[in-house]
C-alpha cells in the first residue's frame, strides 16, 4: 500500500474503498503527471460506477425484504404478493397467452402508451396555453392581479376534486381525461413562466433596448429565451403532475390506460397487477424525466454558465 | 408667432450641430412624484450643462456616486432628468437610435452565439438577413475577434466578451458611442489593450464618444477633453483639455511613456484627490 501513498488526498476515499476489494486496481489512480488526464477521469467514472452499484444493492435489499415479508406471511398473500408473482403478472400482462391479450384485452405496453399519449396531449395543451398565460401574468400587471389567484387556486386542487365536474360536463370518454390533465399540468407551467418573465435580467433588457429593440424583438429575443430554462423546469414539473394525475383521470372508463388497468385490478383484488402498474408508471416516469433533463441540456446549454 | 418659431428653429439647429447637448440637467431620485415612501429625495446630478461636438472624445471622470453614470444614462435615453433638457443630434435621446452603449458588464445574450449577438443588433438596424454574415465578420475583425462567430459567449474570456459588446454597440454604425466604465472589470493587460484599440477605433471612424471612468490614467489616455465631476450633488467641477496626438496612426501604447501624458495624468489625479476631500 505504500506505493499508493502519493495519491491525491481527494482520491483517498476512492482508493481506500477499492482497497478492500482488490488493491490491484488502485495503481491507475496514482498521481502521475504523464497520465494526468486518465487519472482525472478514472475516479469520476469509477465513482459513477460505484453509485450505480449502490443503487443495485439497495434494489436487491428492497426485493429481499419484500420476499422475506412474503415468506414470513406478515400479511396475507392476497395483500402482499411475492416479487415472483408480480414478475409473473408482468409477463402475463405483456404477452398474449391462451388467446388472452395482456390485461383487459390490452398489453401492458399498450396501456402505458395510451396513458402516455394522454399525458402528452394534456401537457401539450398545457404548454400551448400555459406559456402565453404565464408571459401575460409575468408582464402585464392587471392580468396578474386577476389570473394569478386563479392559477394558484387550480394548482392547489387535487385532480379528483374536479374529475366529477369534468365527467358531468364532458361525459366519460376521452375529453374529460384530457381536460383533467390540462388543468393539472397548466398551473405549474404558467406559474414558472410568470416567475421567469418577472426575473428576466433588467441589464439584458436594457442592452437590447440600447440596440434598438422594440416590444416584439424584446419579447422574442430576450424575454422568452431568458425565461426558457425556467419554462422547461415548469414543463418538467407539469409532466410529473400529469403523471400523478393520470390514474385519477382514468378512474372512470379508463381501459385501455395504465390508470384504468390499476383501477380494474383493484376491483378484482389483483394486487400483483396493481403493483405491476405502479412500477410501470414509476419506471416510465424516471425515463421521461431523464429525457426532459437531456432536452433541457440541449435547449439551454448556457444554463448556470451565464 | 413667426419670430418665436424662427428662434426655436435656430435653437434646434444649433443643437443639431452638436452630438450631445445637456442643458442645466438636474436628476433626483426618490422625489415626491415617484411615490411617498418617506425618503427624502436625493439629488444625483445638479445643474449640469455639457456639449459634445461631433467627433469629440469626452471622458467623465470622478469618484463613485458623482452621477457620471447617471449623466450617461440620460444621454442614452434610459432616464429622464427632473429639470433641464437633453438632446442627441438635436433630438430627445431614445435608446437604440443612433447611439451605441457599452456597459461595465458585457451584457451579451448567452442563448445566442457571438455572431448571433451581432445579428440581433444588425436586425434591429434593418440590415437584411443575407447581408448580416458579411457585416458580422467585418465587425468582429474590427475588434480583433475574426472567425469567432460560432463561439458561445460564455466560452470567451472577459476581455473577449467586452470586445463582442463593443462590436455589438458598433453594429448600427452609431454616430455616438457611450461607454460606462467598460474596462473596469478586466485585468490590467487586457484593459490596456482595449483602451488603445478603442482610442484608435474612435479616431479612425470619427465617432463621437462619451466615456465614463474613475481612472485618471484611462481618462487622460482616451479623452480629447476630460470633465472632472464631484459628488454630493453630482456636478462638473473642472475641465481639462488633453492635447495628445489623436491620429488614427498614433501609437497609443507609446503615449503612456511620454512626459506630457505623465504630467496630465498627475494633474488630473491631484484634481480628483481635491474633489474627493473637499
From TrEMBL, chain B:
Gene3D superfamilies in the cross-refs: P-loop containing nucleotide triphosphate hydrolases (3.40.50.300)
Keyword Nucleotide-binding: yes
GO molecular function: ATP binding; ATP hydrolysis activity
Pfam families xrefs: ABC_tran
Record's keyword terms, sorted: ATP-binding, Nucleotide-binding, Transport
InterPro entries reported for this sequence: AAA+_ATPase (IPR003593), ABC_transporter-like_ATP-bd (IPR003439), ABC_transporter-like_CS (IPR017871), ABC_transporter_ATP-bind (IPR050166), P-loop_NTPase (IPR027417)
The name this protein goes by in its record: ABC transporter ATP-binding protein
Species assigned in the record: Yinghuangia soli
Top-rank taxon: Bacteria
Entry annotated with the keyword ATP-binding: yes
Occurrences of domain ABC transporter (ranges): 27-256
Top-level taxonomy: Bacteria, Bacillati, Actinomycetota, Actinomycetes, Kitasatosporales
Amino acid at each position: 500500500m505504500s506505493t499508493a501513498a502519493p495519491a491525491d488526498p481527494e482520491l483517498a476515499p476512492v482508493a481506500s474503498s477499492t482497497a478492500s476489494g482488490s488493491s490491484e486496481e488502485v495503481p491507475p489512480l496514482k498521481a502521475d503527471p504523464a497520465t494526468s488526464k486518465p487519472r482525472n477521469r478514472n475516479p469520476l467514472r469509477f465513482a459513477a460506477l460505484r453509485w450505480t452499484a449502490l443503487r443495485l444493492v439497495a434494489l436487491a435489499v428492497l426485493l429481499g425484504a419484500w420476499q422475506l415479508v412474503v415468506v414470513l406471511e406478515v400479511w396475507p398473500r392476497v395483500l402482499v404478493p411475492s416479487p415472483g408473482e408480480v414478475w409473473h403478472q408482468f409477463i402475463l400482462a405483456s404477452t398474449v397467452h391462451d388467446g388472452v391479450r395482456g390485461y383487459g384485452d390490452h398489453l401492458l405496453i399498450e396501456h402505458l402508451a395510451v396513458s402516455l399519449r394522454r399525458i402528452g396531449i394534456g401537457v401539450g395543451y398545457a404548454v400551448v396555453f400555459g406559456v402565453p398565460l404565464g408571459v401575460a401574468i409575468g408582464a402585464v400587471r392587471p392580468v396578474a392581479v386577476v389570473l394569478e389567484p386563479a392559477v394558484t387556486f387550480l394548482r392547489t386542487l387535487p385532480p379528483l376534486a374536479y374529475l366529477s365536474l369534468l365527467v358531468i360536463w364532458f361525459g366519460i370518454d376521452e375529453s374529460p381525461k384530457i381536460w383533467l390533465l390540462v388543468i393539472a399540468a397548466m398551473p405549474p407551467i404558467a406559474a414558472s413562466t410568470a416567475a421567469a418573465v418577472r426575473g428576466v435580467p433588467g441589464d439584458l433588457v436594457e442592452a437590447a433596448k440600447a440596440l434598438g429593440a422594440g416590444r416584439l424583438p424584446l419579447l422574442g429575443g430576450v424575454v422568452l429565451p431568458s425565461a426558457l430554462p425556467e419554462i422547461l423546469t415548469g414543463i418538467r414539473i407539469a409532466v410529473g403532475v400529469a403523471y400523478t394525475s393520470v390514474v385519477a383521470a382514468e378512474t372512470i372508463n379508463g381501459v385501455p390506460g395504465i390508470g384504468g388497468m390499476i383501477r380494474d385490478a383493484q376491483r378484482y383484488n389483483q394486487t400483483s397487477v396493481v403493483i405491476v402498474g405502479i412500477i410501470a408508471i414509476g419506471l416510465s416516469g424516471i425515463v421521461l424525466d431523464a429525457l426532459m433533463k437531456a432536452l433541457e441540456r440541449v435547449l439551454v446549454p448556457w444554463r448556470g454558465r451565464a | 408667432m413667426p419670430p418665436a418659431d424662427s428662434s426655436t428653429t435656430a435653437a434646434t439647429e444649433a443643437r443639431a450641430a452638436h452630438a450631445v447637448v445637456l442643458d442645466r440637467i438636474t436628476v433626483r431620485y426618490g422625489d415626491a412624484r415617484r411615490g411617498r415612501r418617506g425618503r427624502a429625495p436625493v439629488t444625483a446630478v445638479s445643474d449640469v450643462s455639457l456639449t459634445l461636438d461631433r467627433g469629440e472624445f469626452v471622458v467623465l471622470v470622478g469618484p463613485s456616486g458623482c452621477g457620471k453614470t447617471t449623466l450617461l444614462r440620460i444621454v442614452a435615453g434610459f432616464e429622464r432628468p427632473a429639470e433641464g433638457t437633453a438632446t442627441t443630434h438635436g433630438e430627445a435621446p431614445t435608446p437604440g437610435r443612433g447611439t451605441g452603449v457599452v456597459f461595465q458588464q458585457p451584457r451579451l445574450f448567452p442563448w445566442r452565439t457571438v455572431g448571433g449577438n451581432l445579428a440581433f443588433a444588425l436586425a434591429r438596424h434593418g440590415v437584411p438577413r443575407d447581408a448580416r454574415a458579411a457585416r458580422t465578420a467585418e465587425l468582429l475583425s474590427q475588434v480583433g475577434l475574426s472567425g469567432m462567430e460560432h463561439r458561445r459567449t460564455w466560452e470567451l474570456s472577459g476581455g473577449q466578451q467586452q470586445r463582442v459588446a463593443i462590436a455589438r454597440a458598433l453594429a448600427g454604425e452609431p454616430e455616438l458611442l457611450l461607454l460606462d466604465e467598460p474596462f473596469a472589470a478586466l485585468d490590467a493587460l487586457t484593459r490596456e489593450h482595449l483602451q488603445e484599440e478603442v482610442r484608435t477605433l474612435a479616431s479612425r471612424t470619427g465617432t463621437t464618444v462619451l466615456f465614463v471612468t474613475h481612472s485618471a490614467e484611462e481618462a487622460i489616455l482616451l479623452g480629447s477633453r476630460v470633465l472632472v465631476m464631484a459628488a454630493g450633488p453630482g456636478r462638473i467641477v473642472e475641465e481639462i483639455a488633453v492635447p495628445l496626438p489623436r491620429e488614427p496612426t498614433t501609437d497609443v501604447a507609446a503615449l503612456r511613456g511620454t512626459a506630457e501624458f505623465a504630467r496630465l495624468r498627475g494633474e488630473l489625479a491631484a484634481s480628483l484627490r481635491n474633489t474627493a476631500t473637499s
